[in-house]
From TrEMBL:
This is Protoheme IX farnesyltransferase. The gene is ctaB. GO terms for cellular component: plasma membrane. Gene3D superfamilies: UbiA prenyltransferase. Belongs to the UbiA prenyltransferase family. Protoheme IX farnesyltransferase subfamily. Keywords: Cell membrane, Heme biosynthesis, Membrane, Transferase, Transmembrane, Transmembrane helix. Pfam families: UbiA (PF01040). The lineage of its organism: Bacteria, Pseudomonadati, Pseudomonadota, Alphaproteobacteria, Rhodobacterales. The chain crosses the membrane at residues 31-50, 56-76, 97-118, 124-144, 151-170, 176-199, 225-242, 277-299. It is an enzyme of class 2 (transferase). It is found in: Cell membrane.
Length: 303
């Protein structure tokens, strides 16, 4: 009997652990981690003081909001996720989480995140978080993704708002410096996602999603990627020139921008059917680029 009870207990633990993992997957942890990090940087580099207690609660609230938006995105996208090899193993198409569970989970996380941020920081920051969740989970997920190849450009505004939310949580209002941080993430988003879309264009075509490589073709997509990088590389140096950051940030921004340009140019000159390496390399490096840029802001802020 004790052996049987122990077996039941271990089985229940494994079941609960796997369920927890599936719900965590619904929050899109990698996307959420980027939102958390850029929001934290926005809080830290903003003028004024914010207690660590309020900072921790505010970051947790933003994480909940971002996770809720991710869950709502997966809830709505389940039918197309099932048609794409890249996303077929997500919790909903894999049958690990029901549609109702995902919807309720996403809504609860979103509401809790907004309320917690309002209480820990201020109503304006909470309003920006609510608007970001609505923009991503409704405007982008339910409409833009299906109607325009510029979906990731317009929808990228949602992913670029966390540093503004963090700044507003710390100061009570956004200003031009917060918008500079917004601009860096906004300009970074298209080349980052279009590099992936070049690799996964067959998936998007099968799911009838009008991503730029599907609608305009490989060459046009590469030109757009390079064009955005050409604008992003010098724009990322604005915090240095504007006095928001010092020489550590400026030097790193220039070096990273040069490497991003090199990779964009290499992608432009290499057909995908010859080598997928440049697209894969640009996608991976773009993640390093953004984390390094915002880490440099923290270094200059003395963190």
């Amino acid at each position: 009997m004790p052996i049987a009870n122990g077996l039941v207990a271990r089985t229940a633990l494994v079941f609960r652990s796997s369920r927890v993992a599936h719900f965590i997957a619904l929050t899109k942890p990698r996307v959420m981690s980027l939102a958390i990090f850029t929001a934290f940087v926005g809080m830290v580099v903003a003028p004024g003081e914010m207690s660590w207690g309020k900072t921790v609660i505010s970051i947790a609230a933003i994480a909940a909001g971002a996770g809720g938006a991710g869950a709502l995105n997966m809830w709505y996208d389940a039918p197309i996720d099932a048609r794409m090899a890249r996303t077929a193993n997500r919790p909903l198409p894999a049958g690990e989480v029901s549609s109702v569970e995902a919807l309720v989970f996403g809504l609860v996380l979103a509401v809790v995140g907004v309320i917690a941020l309002a209480l820990a920081a201020n109503p304006l920051a909470a309003g920006l978080l609510a608007g970001t969740i609505a923009f991503y989970s409704v405007l982008y997920t339910m409409w833009l993704k299906y109607v325009t190849p510029q979906n990731i450009v317009i929808g990228g505004a949602a992913g670029a708002l966390p540093p503004v939310i963090g700044w507003t949580a710390a100061t009570g209002s956004p200003d031009w410096q917060a918008l500079v941080l917004f601009g860096i993430v906004f300009l970074w988003t298209p080349p980052h996602f279009w590099a992936l879309a070049l690799l996964k264009s067959a998936d998007y075509s099968a799911a009838r999603i009008p991503m730029l490589p599907v609608v305009a073709g490989e060459t046009a997509t590469k030109r757009q990627i390079l064009a955005y990088i050409v604008v992003l590389a010098p724009f990322a140096a604005v915090p240095w020139f504007a006095g928001m950051a010092g020489v550590v940030y400026g030097g790193l921004a220039m070096a990273l921008g040069a490497e991003l340009l090199r990779r964009g140019w290499r992608l432009m000159r290499t057909p995908i059917d010859v080598s997928r390496g440049p697209a894969r390399g640009l996608f991976a490096f773009s993640i390093v680029y953004l984390y390094a840029i915002f880490s440099a802001l923290l270094l200059d802020a003395g963190v």
